[in-house]
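Example 734, ligand zinc ion.
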Amino acid sequence: MHCKIRTAGGFSNHFPDHIIIWAMPAIGVFLQLIILFEAFMTDPSRYLVTAALPYANGPLHIGHIAGCYLPSDIYTRYQRAQKRDIKFICASDEHGVPITIRALKEGVSPQQVVDKYHALMKESFEQMGISFDIYSRTSNKVHHETSSAFFKKLYDDGLFEEKETEQYYDEKTKTFLADRYIIGTCPVCANPGAYGDQCERCGSSLSPEQLINPRSALSDAVPVKRKTKHWYFPLQDYEPWLKQWVLEEHKEWKNNVYGQCKSWLDMGLQSRAMTRDSNWGVKVPLPDAEGKVLYVWFDAPIGYISATKELTDQWADYWCKDDTKLVHFIGKDNIVFHCIIFPAMLKAHGNFVLPDNVPANEFLNIEGDKVSTSRNWAVWVHEYIKDFPGCEDVLRYVLCANAPETKDNDFTWKDFQDRNNSELVSIFGNFVNRTFVLMHKLCGGKVPKLHEELLDDNDKTLIADIESTKADVQSALEFFRFRDGLFQVIDLSRKGNQYLQKKEPWILTKQLAENPEVQKSIDNTLHICLQLCANLAVLINPFLPGTAKKMLHMMKVVDKMLDWENAGKMKLLSVGYSLREPQLLFRKIEEEEINAQVEKLRSGLVKKEDPKMEEQKAPEQTPAAKAQIVYDDFAKLELKAGTVLACEKVEKADKLLKLEIDLGTEKRTIVSGIALHYTPEEMVGKQVIVVTNLAPRKMKGIESQGMILTAEDSDGKLQLLKPENPVSPGSNVS
Ligand SMILES: [Zn+2]
């Protein structure tokens, strides 16, 4: 069923080199044709698209959207426009240790934590136009029933190993310490804050036994060992099957996905406990399992099935019939769960289809640094929507154009501004706007007639481009190359601009008095441009649905025009039909807006709390308390006292000062957002506290080598932190 494209290298064993060189292009074309042929030949009867269940213990950031929600939404919108039977499934993942720890620290119940973040995430998805057919939650009854029944079936079939083992136990809080309940030093990189399931510094997957100096994340107590019973799923029994299924039958999967699966399978699989000691989660449906729940990675993927059940009575068609195409969109951190563990569970259960593809994206970094929710280094979606109202499509555009499809990519506010101003505004928006303005000016606000006998080479070339772009975008979308597809659409609008520039109807109109025949040429140009606008609406719709909607309004046509079958056609708008005045599709984004965002990010001002929750607080607002940290977290900071040697304003930045600071053994340049509170003159000679081990960052072209500490008063006034009496520059602060 799937083309084994990677075996092409094997030709070199049988053919002399010169034949290979001669044959390679032909083989490449041939293989591509096979892929295309198979894709359309095997046309599934229905599609089931899932997006990774986001974890309900914090708001969404743009890395989430870029990672799996935007690509899955583009794919689904495209398939809907193709009128294919498709369901788009997602839910909040509401179980697992981080939620219980957060609840404990905030002094609320786990249910309160998940209620708050489920609502916030759901709203953010809707505002970003992520068009799930259902956005459910794993705390729902139907999910508890579905995942229990799944577990029970594997249990009744005798597929689990029941094992009693010694596990770490916190006597103070009377809790078994699995996963993130336990912290210790990483045996690989010596990170003192590694968790019982993973070290976030080096990425190693760990078990609690591997941690050096383990301690409880709940009470900091040194744990003892205690016996407990759990149910293990013997992954090794599925290893031969997985090797065949993934490594042989799914060679078409993305390289990053295939590669990660291969390395897991090469290392060899082991039994994995599918239950935990906890009271938060899906109860283990066995009589002797009091105080035990399903492992969150056992129940979460089953959430896709539960949500489909909630959505439709026909759910079994989507999950149990072989002619369904199941596609899991995920981020790279979930590859092992979706390509190895969940398929093995589905295989063991026996009633369900297996994923056809798992197009995982890599990570999106922010301004050159990894996203970190604990450091608040993230662009929060609900904040973006508030700061840039009506610009949801701009974020969709930038995140798709810059998507981490094959490697980690970087989001910068400068790039956001550039892409908006020089691509959306100057190319796409400009073409549509010019076309409508000219049509109102030169053709009486109506779609002019096409005089086919007068078509010249420029006209014919553009018409051919419109027809061929459909196939290019389509093949990109079918094979999960969303960036490529988007660039094809923008490129077509660029060709429209170039065409208008060549035809210059605004110059031709000056000849009308002497030669009325010229109007025919003007009509042809505007007719073709208008048909191109209609085509652009169809093609851009999966990517920027809000923009497509605005274009429909301007053209006074109904949603049906956006059906994919209309792409490539030159008769979407009827001759003589009158169209509305143009409205701007995109606005320019100014320097100040971008500077404000960079500063907000840098100064950590992005509030992590749901704005609605804040409104309910007392009028005297206190910033949200951050999560508790251990001493080792604090000890990572290097703080020193320094003396300001020189200070000046940063050009074109109202809020920034550039400071030269003496730190005893060295001098540093630091850019700080305090210009509204201190003049350069005031600063010289002052002592300040500097964070000296912060990664350097460029601001307005100046590399800032650290950060100075300030306190913000309730009225927003900044005050410098400084030693009570002068100390020698470079003195340690602790
Ligand atoms: Zn480590």
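Summary: Residues 186, 188-189, 191, 194, 199, 201-202, 204 surround zinc ion (CB under 6 Å).
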